[in-house]
């Protein structure tokens, strides 16, 4: 904190406010984790009794196996497409003033501010009118539309830190443009690429609104299955699943931190290569 | 710095942008289509007749039920925007001015993890907090504020709480990013000149933070207005938001024309309005 | 000697600014040529045009007699060393150095790649470093690897863009002498960009002094230093006392003020409007002198720089910068001291009335 005296009233109020907000953020997650251990057949917090039976039940659930597989595969495909397309585009924009002036950057960032409901709806209308019923294509395109802008944005801030002289050095040493990209630029962009792909995967796995709009064709992704289960059978098994997902998220965050450095996302530290 | 002019042998940057462009093309086509479809009578379209009409917009805006929902959506959006901006500011201040790296990292983690947890899980977690057997009731009963537990779900309160929960991490991200760019030395200078910590905050830090807080509030508003999942589960059938109505048009009536018009209305109310407000304030503030 | 690099009428504009105008230059095989000038004079722009990573608006670049103006950089057989080294951080030293050979090396070099890499690493005295990672190297070591990488594919021309600017002062001095050795041993034609005139004087066979996108003077270090063509060169390279005055009709003397008239060594050109006098050429004494151009003055300011002391002296209303070596036995130049100084006529260099002349010459 700015104030040197930790006992000043400002510090106390400030710390109290931060603790309050932190509790606000953490509380629901803590509650759900706690309720997953309760013995009651309904959700209660604080839980009465402790048991792992709901986790056991979770592992035997049939209705989630297929959607889980679908979401994992979809996430991987979306991660690949969004990650590569977004990172390459960010690099191109970092190097070409012509592209920067053409407004492509705003165009690529637009989906971030649009409600995913509208994005999903418009794609639904498009595919309906075109008579495209292949839900895989629609889902992939829908997920890419919401994930790529974020990948692009993070990649942009990382791409500008790339030292242009390194590419010039490679060119003067005899490397044609394709070699410069494959042997020099892409390896140096790897942290941005990996970070972007992880983010895209996480966002796609999480994506509910677009999936539920576009999945009339019978493909159920994991979040949609989760939603259906939530509607009809509310019990601590759901809490167990939630807890598992929360821990999965923590893992992803840690991996993301290793790959990209979380402070970069906040614009806090400048990493120089 | 040497200007990056083109020269023979430079990589073709246009080609590098192409994959992204191709993947995005359907999205843009779809968006223009939505605008067009909103002016068309959809059931007739399926039979091949193009009937241009303003009916869809009439329904989207002037139907009394839809209008009421729209007003509610905007009203709650403003509340959520303001609330999340206020809650986010201390966290952002803590992260941006943290004295120790590990403290900063902890705060960042506490912001990002809820942010990335599956939306449905978050909503579900909120039901366990707000439900009859939930945590909030447990606390209230034990402190004897109320005698019997009652469900807070399916109420405007739940919707506002839920949306705030979703929006606060966004707000923290925005304010922190902008605050990190502010020169910390100005605050140090003020305190060496004799200003106490409260004065530094109110006279030096806060005025420079206003744009960031305002931006965060606007984003909070836009996000809240377009929220779908939270009102769906926490609001129940009685407290629907505008986006839920759009979904109903699609899922139960299949009238894409109406849905499109409502989507356009939603866009205007969320994004366009927020952007206009931002520009207006900028002009007033004389930047 | 054959000309490796020839520039004809190179010009480049950025918006309304002329970054380069009318650049003509010939560089002979094996020579070390420096482009010297202050920031913004266009030297780096010119280097990048030679390298091919920038296109000129007009003019021609010829390498070994061949037109390469529109050739991409990977088709020109040259190498470049950058101020920030620009090593490939994701490759180790060996792969960095080998890169050029792999891209455009001759067939035999490709077969003997390990040998060639060792050869160049030995040349820069880092023979044992082949397996190291770039992040493990110090600044000086990185610069040497950058040089080795540039030399490995046997380029016809070596370009260097202020390679020593990022190094600490001490390392820079060491590298400077080593650089000259390396260039001689490798016998590679070198074009070197710097704003440090000491560096240029120490390293170059010929110096190209530039200002505002034009060439001011081309010559050897001695020529540039003792025979500057105009005020800019006189002032930029080394320290100089520049005194404006009127030439007498017989062109043998110049009147700085009515009291101070200098005798020149030989008849000066009619266009002379000023003269340049190097501080170290002014002879100092404790006793009044009777030779030509003898004056007396009082020291106004002294600056001790270790081996020498610079002093500002007031001579009949004119400020002159003097220089004295701090040898034991020499009189110290102190403020308030009265000195007797003599300016040898041969040390007075006439300057034209324009600030700045452009000149074309064969390097």
In short:
By secondary structure, chain A is mostly helical.
Task: Please give a structural write-up.
The complex is a heterotrimer of chains A (273), B (287) and C (363). Chain A is an all-alpha fold. Chain A is 75% helix and 0% strand. Chain A folds into 2 domains: 9-56, no CATH class; 63-266, MetI-like (MetI-like fold, Orthogonal Bundle). The longest helix of chain A is centred in the first third of the chain and has 31 residues, at 65-95. Chain A is globular, with a radius of gyration of 23 Å. With 287 residues, chain B is an all-alpha fold. Chain B folds into 2 domains: 12-53, no CATH class; 63-285, MetI-like (MetI-like fold, Orthogonal Bundle). Helix content of chain B is 77%, strand content 0%. Chain B has helices at 13-37, 42-46, 55-62, 64-96, 101-116, 119-130, 135-142, 156-181, 184-192, 197-225, 229-235, 242-253, 256-285. Chain C has 2 domains: 3-226, Rossmann fold; 231-352, OB fold (Dihydrolipoamide Acetyltransferase, E2P). Chain C has 9 helices and 21 strands. At the A-B interface, α1, α3, α4, α5 and α6 of A face α1, α4, α5, α6 and α8 of B.
What are the SSEs and their pairings?
The complex is a heterotrimer of chains A (273), B (287) and C (363).
Chain A: H1 9-35, H2 53-59, H3 65-95, H4 97-101, H5 104-113, H6 116-130, H7 135-159, H8 164-172, H9 177-206, H10 209-214, H11 222-232, H12 236-259, H13 262-266
Helix pairs in contact in A: 1-12, 2-12, 3-7, 3-9, 3-11, 5-7, 6-7, 7-9, 8-9, 9-12
Chain B: H1 13-37, H2 42-46, H3 55-62, H4 64-96, H5 101-116, H6 119-130, H7 135-142, H8 156-181, H9 184-192, H10 197-225, H11 229-235, H12 242-253, H13 256-285
Helix pairs in contact in B: 3-4, 3-13, 4-5, 4-8, 4-10, 5-8, 6-11, 8-10, 8-11, 9-10, 10-13, 12-13
Chain C: E1 3-14, E2 17-28, E3 32-36, H1 43-51, E4 58-63, E5 66-67, E6 78-81, H2 93-104, H3 107-111, H4 113-123, H5 139-151, E7 157-161, H6 169-186, E8 189-194, H7 197-203, E9 206-211, E10 214-219, H8 221-226, H9 231-236, E11 241-244, E12 246-247, E13 253-255, E14 261-263, E15 272-277, E16 283-285, E17 294-304, E18 308-315, E19 318-325, E20 338-342, E21 348-352
Parallel strand pairs in C: 3-8, 3-9, 6-7, 7-8
Antiparallel strand pairs in C: 1-2, 1-4, 4-5, 9-10, 11-15, 12-13, 13-14, 15-21, 16-20, 17-18, 17-20, 18-19
Helix pairs in contact in C: 2-4, 2-5, 4-5
């Amino acid at each position: 904190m700015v104030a040197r005296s930790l006992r000043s009233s400002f510090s106390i109020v400030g710390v109290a406010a931060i603790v309050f907000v932190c509790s606000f953020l953490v509380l629901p997650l803590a509650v759900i984790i706690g309720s997953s251990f309760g013995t009651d057949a309904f959700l209660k917090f604080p839980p009465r009794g402790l048991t792992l039976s709901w986790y056991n039940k979770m592992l035997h659930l049939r209705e989630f196996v297929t959607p889980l597989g679908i979401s994992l595969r979809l996430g991987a495909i979306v991660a690949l497409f969004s990650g590569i397309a977004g990172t390459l585009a960010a690099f191109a924009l970092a190097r070409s003033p012509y592209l920067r002036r053409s407004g492509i950057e705003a165009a690529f960032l637009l989906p971030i501010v649009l409600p995913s409901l509208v994005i999903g709806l418009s794609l639904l209308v498009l595919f309906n009118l075109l008579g495209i019923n292949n839900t895989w294509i629609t889902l992939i395109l829908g997920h890419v539309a919401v994930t790529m802008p974020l990948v692009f944005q993070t990649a942009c801030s990382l791409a500008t830190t790339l030292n242009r002289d390194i590419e010039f050095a490679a060119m003067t040493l005899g490397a044609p443009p394709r070699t410069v990209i494959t042997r020099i630029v892409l390896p140096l962009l790897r942290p941005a690429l990996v970070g972007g792909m992880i983010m895209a995967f996480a966002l796609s796995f999480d994506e509910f609104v677009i999936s539920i709009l576009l999945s009339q064709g019978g493909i159920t992704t994991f979040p949609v299955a989760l939603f259906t289960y939530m509607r009809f059978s509310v019990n601590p098994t759901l809490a167990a699943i939630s807890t598992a997902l929360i821990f999965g998220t923590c893992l992803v965050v840690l991996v993301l931190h290793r790959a990209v450095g979380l402070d970069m996302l906040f614009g806090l530290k400048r990493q120089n290569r | 710095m040497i200007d990056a002019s083109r020269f023979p042998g430079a990589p073709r940057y246009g080609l590098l942008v192409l994959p992204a462009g191709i993947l995005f093309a359907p999205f843009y086509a779809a968006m223009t289509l939505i605008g067009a479809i909103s002016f068309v009578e959809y059931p007739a379209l399926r039979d091949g007749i193009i009937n241009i009409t303003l009916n869809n917009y009439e329904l989207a805006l002037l139907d009394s039920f839809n209008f009421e929902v729209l007003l509610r959506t905007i009203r709650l959006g403003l509340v959520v925007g303001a609330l999340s901006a206020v809650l986010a500011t201390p966290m952002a201040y803590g992260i941006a001015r943290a004295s120790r790296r590990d403290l900063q990292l902890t705060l960042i983690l506490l912001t990002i993890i809820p942010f990335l947890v599956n939306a449905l899980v978050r909503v579900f977690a909120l039901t366990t907090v707000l439900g009859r057997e939930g945590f909030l009731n447990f606390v209230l009963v034990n402190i004897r504020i109320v005698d019997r537990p009652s469900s807070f779900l399916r109420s405007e309160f739940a919707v506002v709480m839920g949306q705030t929960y979703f929006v606060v991490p966004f707000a923290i991200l925005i304010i922190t990013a902008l605050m990190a760019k502010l020169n910390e030395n100005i605050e140090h200078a003020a305190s060496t000149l004799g200003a106490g910590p409260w004065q530094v905050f109110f006279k030096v830090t806060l005025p420079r933070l206003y744009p960031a807080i305002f931006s965060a509030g606007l984003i909070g508003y836009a996000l809240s207005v377009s929220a779908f999942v939270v009102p769906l589960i926490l609001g129940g059938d009685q407290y629907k938001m505008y986006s839920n109505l759009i979904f109903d048009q699609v899922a139960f009536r299949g009238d894409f024309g109406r849905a499109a018009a409502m989507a356009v209305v939603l866009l205007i109310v969320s994004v366009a309005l927020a952007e206009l407000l931002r520009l207006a304030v900028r002009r007033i503030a004389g930047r | 000697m054959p000309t490796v690099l020839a520039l004809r009428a190179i010009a480049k504009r950025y918006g309304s600014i002329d970054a380069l105008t009318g650049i003509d230059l010939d560089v002979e095989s094996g020579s070390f040529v420096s482009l010297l000038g202050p920031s913004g004079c266009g030297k780096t722009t010119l280097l990048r045009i030679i390298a091919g990573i920038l296109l000129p608006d007009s003019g021609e670049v010829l390498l070994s007699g061949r037109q390469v103006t529109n050739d991409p950089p990977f088709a020109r057989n040259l190498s470049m060393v950058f101020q920030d080294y620009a090593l490939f951080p994701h490759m180790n030293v060996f792969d960095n150095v080998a890169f050029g050979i792999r891209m455009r090396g001759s067939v035999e070099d490709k077969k003997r790649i390990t040998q060639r890499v060792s050869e160049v690493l030995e040349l820069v005295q880092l023979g044992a470093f082949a397996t190291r990672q770039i992040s493990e190297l110090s600044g000086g070591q990185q610069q040497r690897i950058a040089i080795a990488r540039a030399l490995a594919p046997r380029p016809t021309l070596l370009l260097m863009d202020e390679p020593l600017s990022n190094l600490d002062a001490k390392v820079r001095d060491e590298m400077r002498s080593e650089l000259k050795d390396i260039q001689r041993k490798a016998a590679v034609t070198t074009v070197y960009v710097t704003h440090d005139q000491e560096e240029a004087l120490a390293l170059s066979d010929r110096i190209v002094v530039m200002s505002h996108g034009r060439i001011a003077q081309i010559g050897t270090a001695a020529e540039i230093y003792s025979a500057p063509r105009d005020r800019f060169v006189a002032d930029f390279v080394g320290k100089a006392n520049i005194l404006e005055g009127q030439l007498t009709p017989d062109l043998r003397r110049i009147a700085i003020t009515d009291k101070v008239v200098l005798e020149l060594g030989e008849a000066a050109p009619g266009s002379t409007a000023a003269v340049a006098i190097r501080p170290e050429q002014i002879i100092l004494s404790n006793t009044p002198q009777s030779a030509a151009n003898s004056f007396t003055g009082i020291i106004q300011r002294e600056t001790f720089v270790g081996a020498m002391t610079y002093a500002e002296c007031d001579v009949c209303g004119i400020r002159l910068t003097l220089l004295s070596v701090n040898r034991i036995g020499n009189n110290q130049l102190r403020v308030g001291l009265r000195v007797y100084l003599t300016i040898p006529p041969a040390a007075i260099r006439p300057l034209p009335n324009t600030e700045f002349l452009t000149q074309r010459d064969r390097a």
